[in-house]
């Protein structure tokens, strides 16, 4: 089972077909934060995957073990009758204030946008990219977050394990955002499990889609303990908040 030190990220699919993180958590060696947007190779079938539910439900992280789909980070088997591979996660895009990348060396490429060429030239003198460690990249993102006020420019940053990869993806990074490659560590927390296909519909036409506003406004309800009078155990209804005393 998943240890208490890990929180499984919650994902949602937006109306335009993107997948975003709606609640923070750990998966495959990466700390995902609320508001993160996942960047995919839609033809990818290996590495860190996003599994898309058939019918109702939200996406989840997964991986492939030969022909078997597995949930990440739990390691539980995922039935192909319930889940499709949405794509392989190649990068994460997030706001500068939430940088927090994994330890290691990152090659950082920067793009500046402004209608004032002198402001761009001045900003290039004050921002240092290239090979940085996680702490230096975090400091760079904090500096970039105030660049519109301090330097009169908007900044976009890409980070990966190579100069070529960072420069290649920089052109599609929106200003005000950091995009960094995923470095998945695919270790299962569960050693065994049983696939339960379940009675889910095969049609996605009625599946719920999230708008960007719904993602921004999402809130997680506090967990309540089900305890009856005198400390007796209770069973919660599947269709409401009513509780029935057990025994």
Can you tell me the residue ranges where pLDDT is under 50 for at least 5 consecutive residues? Answer: 189-203, 220-229, 232-247
Helix content: 10-25%
Measured by DSSP, the beta-strand proportion falls in 25-35%
Structural domain count = 2
Number of helices: 5
- Which overall shape is indicated by the principal axes computed on the Cα atoms? elongated
Largest beta-sheet details = 10 strands, mixed
What is the rounded distance between the termini? 29 Å
User: C-alpha Rg, in Å?
Assistant: 21 Å
- Structural class by helix and strand composition: alpha+beta
Task: Please tell me about this protein's structure.
The strands form four sheets. Strands 5, 6, 7, 8, 9, 10, 11, 12, 13 and 14 form a ten-stranded mixed β-sheet that branches. A two-stranded antiparallel sheet has the order 1-2. Strands 3-4 form a two-stranded antiparallel sheet. It has 247 residues and is an alpha+beta fold. Strand 13, helix 4 (163-170) and strand 14 (177-181) form a beta-alpha-beta unit. It has helices spanning 117-126, 134-145, 147-150, 163-170, 212-217, and strands at 10-13, 19-23, 25-27, 30-32, 37-41, 49-53, 60-65, 68-71, 77-78, 83-95, 105-113, 130-133, 154-160, 177-181, 234-236, 243-245. Residues 189-203, 220-229 and 232-247 have low confidence and may be disordered. The protein is elongated and about 60 Å long. It has five helices and 16 strands. The chain has two domains: 10-94 and 184-217; 103-177.
